[in-house]
Amino acid sequence: MSTAYSADISGQRIEVEIVPPTNYSPPVLSIRQQFGTFQLHADPEQLAEVEYAIRTYLEGIRYPETPDQQMILHAECVSAIEEVIA
Fold first, then answer.
1. Measured between alpha carbons, how far is residue 50 from residues 28, 54, 55 in Å?
2. Of the residues 17, 39, 65, 79, which has the fewest C-beta atoms closer than 10 A?
């Protein structure tokens, strides 16, 4: 049996914390916002998988203010060629 939960928290202020494990429960990822709190009870290995998925997603986003590495390399090559010609 599986269950899906969905909450749109975009545009809202959130607080995120990891509640350490106790003798009775594993670590808890707690996401608190204005209308309530979402708690994910998970083993450290599962939290690492969540972290990896989030980090992979964020690294894949290309922000407009982030220079394109290919454009930087091209500009460096052009500068080097101009220096050799001059």
1. 12, 6, 9
2. 65
